[in-house]
Amino acid sequence: MGFGSGLSPVAPGTVGTLWAWAAFLWFQPYLHGDVAYAAVLGVSVMLGWWVCTITARNLRVHDPASVVWDEIVAFWLILWLIEPTTGWEQLAAFALFRFFDAVKPGPVGWADRLYRGVDTVRDPAAWRKAGWGIMLDDLVAAFCTLLVLALWRAW
Predict the structure, then answer these.
(1) Is residue 102 a contact partner of residue 13, using CB atoms and an 8 Å limit?
(2) Which of 75, 79, 80, 101 stands 20 to 30 A from 40 (CA)?
(3) Please, are residues 31 and 86 in contact by the beta-carbon 8 Å criterion?
(4) Could you give the maximum distance between any two Cα atoms of the chain, in Å?
(5) How far apart are CA 51 and CA 48, in angstroms?
(6) Are 44 and 54 in contact (CB under 8 A)?
């Protein structure tokens, strides 16, 4: 639940993304090189899948709004891959990511629906699929954000 940010009564995904931004800025001086960033993100994705699976199963909801670890990891990925950057570019990344995550156009919507209807009674892997589904749509939203930012930089 993103260290409490997902418990926000208003726009928990946005609050979680804001928390991700602040946390990234805080730990950025401690991570040196792409290997460190990749390791943190790799562990965060795998840990996130596990945590999202357990939380969804315990709450009995395929994608609880209070679970924002998916937003956090996806936004960390964006911030890492757009470095070096300015605060304005980070703000643009934030706005684009929130757009893709909230509106869920095209591939983001597909990823969001992919594991929504898993049968938790008949499918023994249903909650693991739901946990991965929680992570997947935000990773696709991150990819879409990065694509737009890359096109913007190239233009």
Answers:
(1) yes
(2) 101
(3) no
(4) 50
(5) 5
(6) no
Token pair 């009674």 is at which residue?
Answer: 121
Which pair of tokens denotes residue 45? 């994705």
Distance of CA 22 to the CA centre of its chain: 15
Can you tell me whether residue 7 is helix, strand or coil?
helix
Distance CA 138, CA 134 (A): 7
pLDDT (tens place) for every residue of the chain, 155 residues total = 777 878 778 899 999 999 999 999 999 889 889 999 999 999 999 999 999 999 989 998 888 888 999 999 999 999 999 999 999 999 999 999 999 999 999 999 999 998 888 888 898 888 889 999 999 999 999 999 999 999 998 98
Residue with tokens 């591939």: 107
